[in-house]
Each structure stands twice: as structure tokens, then as C-alpha cells.
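Sequence only, no structure available. Ideas?
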Amino acid sequence: MKTLINRDLLKRGGIVAASAAVLVGIGSAPAMASNVSISLPNGRGTMTFIDDGDKFRVCDTKVDDHGVTGYVRQLRADGRIVTILTIDDGGDNGCDTKSVDLLGRTPHDMVLCWNGGGACVVSPVIRES
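Reply:
I predicted one. C-alpha cells follow.
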């Protein structure tokens, strides 16, 4: 009898865990036409997608003799990932900003890398509405 109760509890726990995983998946849906930001560890830099005008801003936020580089990538239906914009910042005051028209519902993402050792971060998928 005790074994049956344990199995029932395990089944219920599995159902609860599966339900939580589905909710997490729904909650991590692609970003739709809103500003999106990513940051490097240790305050080294930031990259922001500004929906108004499809602008991308890259900021080197740490004086360490290394800049940061941001990439905007298009995630194509054939599985290829193509860099469509590169933005470098470092060695000057302020941030660097460039614009590129994101194509309709085509998925894009941002990658921000520190130029002093390869640390990079990747954004969630970005789609225009």
C-alpha cells in the first residue's frame, strides 16, 4: 500500500513539474516590438534594441582598455544565422547607435561581446509585429 502511495505522489510531482515547464516556455516567448536590453557581466557593457526606428545602441561602460562589440543577427528559415549589423564602442565618450530595418516577423537576436577576452551574451529572439 505504501508503494502505491509513493507512486501516486511521484506521478503527481511529474505532472506538476511538466506543467511548470510549459508555463516557463510560454513565458519565454520572443520579444515582440518592444525595447530589449542585454548586459555583459561585471558592468563591461550594454546593448539595447530601441523599437522606435529599429535602432541598436552599444555602450562600453567600463574603462578597462577594451571595448565592446554588438552584433545584430537574422535567424533565417533555412537554419543559417547571418550578421546584418556590427557596432563597436570603446575609447570614446558616449554610446554608439546604428539603425537597421528588421524585416517583418523574421526572427533576430543581439550578441554583445567584450573585446578583452571573449565573454559574450545573447538576447532573446526579437521580432517586429
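Residues 2-27 form the longest helix (26 residues).
Hope that gets you unstuck.
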